[in-house]
Structure formats: C-alpha cells, structure tokens
Amino acid sequence: MTLRDVEFNIRGELTEPEDILRCLRNLLMTPAGTVPLDRDFGIDQSFLGYPLDVAQSLIAVEIIDKVDRYEPRASVTEVELTPNIEGQITAKVVITSG
C-alpha cells in the first residue's frame, strides 16, 4: 500500500497559494526518513502492512500532524482517502489559512 497522489482543495484565503501547495505536495509525497538533515520530514510509511481501515487512519493523522508542524500557513480541515485495487491510496486534503 502506498500514497499515490494528493489533491488539495482550498477554503478561504491563503497567502502565496502556489508556494503553499508546492510545499504541501513536497511534504506529503516524501517518505519520512529520506531527507538527510530532517529525518522526520515527510510521511511515515509505517502504515504499510496494516489493514486498510487502520492504514487510512494512520495516514490521516500523519497528514494532519505533518502539515501542522511543517506548513504554518495552512491548516488541514479534512482528509479524504480513496484506495484502489492495487493498494494505492489517493488523498484529498482540504486546507484553510493557518
């Protein structure tokens, strides 16, 4: 199971929306542990191997926590995860200004 793609919906006004979206996509598509000077940056892949419902909960919590920590200009208001038959999950993340 892998996080395949992230779609963002913006509610309200964001400053520098293109930069925020670029930063969020980079954060959420990077596996944690792969950035040499900040091993916590990115999404923890420990959800691999869990049942789908547990994995989806872990991913949603991870997305909310990491956006809160690494992108103060945005706040997550909703995370919708859609799995496919290949074990890939697409995330729809709704954000507002932080």
Provide key terms for this protein.
98 residues; alpha+beta; 3-stranded mixed β-sheet
Write up this protein.
The model has no long low-confidence stretch (mean pLDDT 86). Strand 2 and strand 3 (88-97) form a beta hairpin. The chain contains two helices and three strands, in the order E-H-H-E-E. The chain has 98 residues and is of the alpha+beta class. Strands 1-3-2 form a three-stranded mixed sheet, with helices on one face.
Strand order within the widest beta sheet: 1-3-2
Radius of gyration using CA atoms only: 13 Å
The secondary-structure class comes to alpha+beta
> Roughly what is the average pLDDT, rounded to an integer?
86
Number of helices: 2
Summarize the structure.
With 98 residues, the protein is an alpha+beta fold.
Write the layout of secondary structure elements.
Elements: E1 2-10, H1 17-29, H2 52-70, E2 74-83, E3 88-97
Parallel strand pairs: 1-3
Antiparallel strand pairs: 2-3
